[in-house]
């Protein structure tokens, strides 16, 4: 069954709606929200340190530690990770995996070496895409790097996990870019692909599952009640 992973964006210790929006989603702390996810049967969490992404170094280690110490959620963590020390510290504070975007563009050889040194099960390539090209630096800097070429570089060097988001759909509730995900899986059939951006409802999630997507990261649909935690709990409980 496809993995359903809720996303938390952290800015100044609060959960926010998006990368350029500091409107608080919940009055509760990130820990309370994470605990609620766990209560409804979710097992994983996508945690993004926007403060870290903004300054170029991880800031919210303490929230990562609090969540991993007080829940059983498997957390993938990213935002501001640029050095080997950053990666080591993320694992030290409880991350199960780290997702890397900018650093994988700025220093390809280093990220490829991390796949080997830390293990392919611990590293996620985060590819934010616009018009088939990679975007980095918190999605504020578009590159001329072709998405497929970028993925292929790391795929041939052992990459297992890929998170891919079409920036034009992120936070829009217009539906995922299904054709892009089909193309990725056609070219890289063994990759474990996480889809992100545009998810509106459970039908979208079922369709992603049907085309072979390994997991889906949801945010806006969850926070705006298009998909409820009870919906997810029932979906998870369905026979495989």
Automatic annotation (TrEMBL):
Please name the GO terms of the biological process aspect recorded for this protein, alphabetically.
L-histidine biosynthetic process; L-tryptophan biosynthetic process
Mind telling me which Gene3D superfamilies this protein's record contains?
A: Aldolase class I (3.20.20.70)
Show the catalytic activity. 1-(5-phospho-beta-D-ribosyl)-5-[(5-phospho-beta-D-ribosylamino)methylideneamino]imidazole-4-carboxamide = 5-[(5-phospho-1-deoxy-D-ribulos-1-ylimino)methylamino]-1-(5-phospho-beta-D-ribosyl)imidazole-4-carboxamide
User: Which HAMAP family is this protein grouped with?
Assistant: HisA (MF_01014)
Family named by the database record: Belongs to the HisA/HisF family.
Quote the PANTHER family the UniProt record gives.
1-(5-PHOSPHORIBOSYL)-5-[(5-PHOSPHORIBOSYLAMINO)METHYLIDENEAMINO] IMIDAZOLE-4-CARBOXAMIDE ISOMERASE
- Name of protein: 1-(5-phosphoribosyl)-5-[(5-phosphoribosylamino)methylideneamino] imidazole-4-carboxamide isomerase
State the organism named in the record: Thermoflexibacter ruber
